[in-house]
Design goal:
Largest sheet: 7 strands, antiparallel
Radius of gyration: 20 Å
Strand content: 25-35%
Shape: globular
Number of helices: 5
Strand order of the largest sheet: 1-2-3-7-6-5-4
Structural class: alpha+beta
Distance between the termini: 64 Å
Number of strands: 7
Helix content: 25-40%
Order of helices and strands: HHEEEHHEEEEH
Length: 199
């Protein structure tokens, strides 16, 4: 009798771990996919000033007139965004005033939040936790090989399962420290974070 009780008790415990509620992990979910509802971390709610849907945001509109003046941005122009950033993703290219050392873009990432970021980028690049005007954010130095320029990438946790990427790097043919690109990513991130909170 005792031999039969153990398997039944174990089955009851395992069944209790499963959940069919949307956005909640279950014992049968082996895909590791990021939840589409709930928090970006998959458990506790994320403390952010305001959740903003990255599919509907005007990404170039996050660069306000004040930000352009303060950060010496000459123009913010919408451009095509990589398809692998998710459905409805958007991009905005930033052109800085002369003399130009760094360049960059904003991207909306709609294919997963912080969990996915840690499973993908976090596997090969160190992610440093920081904030952008109250939003949780993650800074990554993206050092590449070949013709692609290095960049410093700031991922802002703007919404559950979605990120806003601020990508800055030295212009092609210009030798400049990557730390300068990181400083710029953080400054632009602070400006767009402020704009997100009032979007």
């Amino acid at each position: 009798m005792r031999r039969l009780a153990v398997p039944f008790l174990l089955a009851a415990v395992l069944t209790g771990c499963s959940s069919t509620e949307p956005g909640k992990p279950s014992a049968g979910d082996q895909t590791g996919s990021a939840p589409t509802t709930g928090s970006s971390a998959g458990n506790a709610p994320v403390n952010r000033p305001k959740a903003v849907d990255m599919k509907s945001v005007d990404v170039c509109g996050l660069i306000t007139a004040d930000a352009k003046t303060t950060l010496k941005i000459q123009s913010a122009t919408e451009r095509e965004s990589p398809a692998d950033y998710g459905e409805g993703t958007k991009s905005c290219g930033l052109l800085f005033q002369q003399p130009r050392t760094y360049g960059g873009s904003l991207y909306t990432l709609t294919n997963g939040g912080v969990d996915r970021l840690k499973r993908t980028v976090g596997k090969t690049t160190e992610l440093t936790e920081t904030t952008a005007s109250g939003y949780p954010a993650y800074l990554a130095k993206n050092i590449t090989e070949g013709s692609q320029p290095d960049s410093c990438d700031l991922y802002i946790d703007a919404n559950d399962g979605q990120l806003l990427l601020v990508k800055m790097g030295p212009l092609i043919g210009v030798e400049a420290p990557l730390d300068g690109a990181c400083d710029l990513s953080k400054s632009v991130g602070a400006a767009v974070g402020t704009a997100l909170a009032t979007a």
